[in-house]
Amino acid sequence: MSKANHTSETEQMPAFETSLKELEQIVIRLESGDLPLEDALNEFERGIQLARQGQKTLQQAEQRVQILLNHDAQSPLDEFPPNAE
């Protein structure tokens, strides 16, 4: 995948946090029971799209973490000291 393709794909997809907030609002609207059937179906369809995008984003993040952790498998992880206040 070239960088140009990755950039255009990223620009088309909303940020993970934005998608999550929109998905939460869709759930609230669907749970209200006040939507006509066609609107409810449209909301449900959008919710499924957002959920799939979110799942893909989380899978990509998990892969990045695995790559970072496997980069130097012999290197021990250091413990962080507790926050001094």
UniProtKB/TrEMBL annotation:
Catalysed transformations (reactions): Exonucleolytic cleavage in either 5'- to 3'- or 3'- to 5'-direction to yield nucleoside 5'-phosphates
Catalytic EC class: hydrolase
Superkingdom per UniProt: Bacteria
Entry keywords, A to Z: Cytoplasm, Exonuclease, Hydrolase, Nuclease
Subcellular location: Cytoplasm
Entry GO MF terms: exodeoxyribonuclease VII activity
EC number per UniProt: 3.1.11.6
Keyword match Hydrolase: yes
UniProt keyword annotation of DNA damage present: no
InterPro entries, A to Z: Exonuc_VII_S (IPR003761), Exonuc_VII_ssu_sf (IPR037004)
Classification via NCBIfam families: PRK00977.1-1, PRK00977.1-4, xseB
Function: Bidirectionally degrades single-stranded DNA into large acid-insoluble oligonucleotides, which are then degraded further into small acid-soluble oligonucleotides.
Subunit structure: Heterooligomer composed of large and small subunits.
Family note: Belongs to the XseB family.
UniProt-recorded name of the protein: Exodeoxyribonuclease 7 small subunit
Source organism of this protein record: Xenorhabdus yunnanensis
Gene that encodes the chain: xseB
